[in-house]
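Same chain as my last thread, 132 residues:
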Amino acid sequence: MEAGKERLARDTVRDATRAEVYGVKRENERLKQLHPQTNGKVERYQQTLKGEINRIPYEMPSELRQAIESYVKYYNDHRYHEALGNVTPADVYHGRRDDILARRKEAKQRTLQARKGHNHKVRELDKGNSTG
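reply #2:
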């Protein structure tokens, strides 16, 4: 495989239109048809995409293409993925994942320290009120 090219996994010939719809120009990797054990990620992605796109009947192929493009942009740029540590695929692709997770960890630590300080003050006030 050439440097800089990624592989697009597809499970059927009709999915070749994916390259046209998504603007993906990559080397293809043939996977066994209808076999979720070997191509579960592709199957799951297609299921998610179809679940979102099939909610509305489209009259023109261009409307469907636009809906798919919009969902793919949302999926990659805005939707947090639990498997990626609750960051977007774009964050991982652009190398921002570690920075985001570090900032979240720092914010969590600050929050826990603030909560601990607050609880300590409340306990001190309760001790002062109960002895008096």
